[in-house]
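Progress note, sequence design subtask.
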């Protein structure tokens, strides 16, 4: 038995590892991967269809600045990523294609506190810098 285990170890010693050191090395995401949503504030009309569609009730429509240089406010979605299951229904149902999916999945949205997972319209529109991944996608 010991000899058998030793043999397995020796055989595997020269093979490349099948695991990766995270977060130093990212996993390559497929094109169909659904990560943190991105909001196009210009396109969004604040209709709330995304909020009504969300099966996890992770979206609320809140008032926020129309852009980072303006004091004017409009209604936009805010997503509680702690309740989101990244199903993509909010993106599919948006009549204005104002929501899209990105490959951002961990960096910048991993935290110990649930309240830190609340993605305001400014965060979704990337007006607030979240940790950038290697491809520069936020
Ligand atoms: S993101 Fe789309 S569905 Fe959601 S409030 Fe804006 S326009 Fe409506
Ligand atoms: S991806 Fe799905 S669970 Fe997440 S906010 Fe959109 S509809 Fe809700």
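Output:
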């Amino acid at each position: 038995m010991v000899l058998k285990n030793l043999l397995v170890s020796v055989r595997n010693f020269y093979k490349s590892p099948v695991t990766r050191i995270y977060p130093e090395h990212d996993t390559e995401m497929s094109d169909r991967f659904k990560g943190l949503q991105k909001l196009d504030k210009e396109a969004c009309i604040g209709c709330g269809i995304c909020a009504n569609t969300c099966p996890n009730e992770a979206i609320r429509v809140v008032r926020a600045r129309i852009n980072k240089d303006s004091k004017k406010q409009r209604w936009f979605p805010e997503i509680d990523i702690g309740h989101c299951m990244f199903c993509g229904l909010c993106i599919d149902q948006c009549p204005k294609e104002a929501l899209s999916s990105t490959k951002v999945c961990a960096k910048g949205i991993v935290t110990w506190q649930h309240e830190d997972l609340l993605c305001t319209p400014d965060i979704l529109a990337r007006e607030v810098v979240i940790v950038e991944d290697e491809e520069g996608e936020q």
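DSSP finds four helices and five strands in the chain. Work on this subtask will continue into the next period as scheduled.
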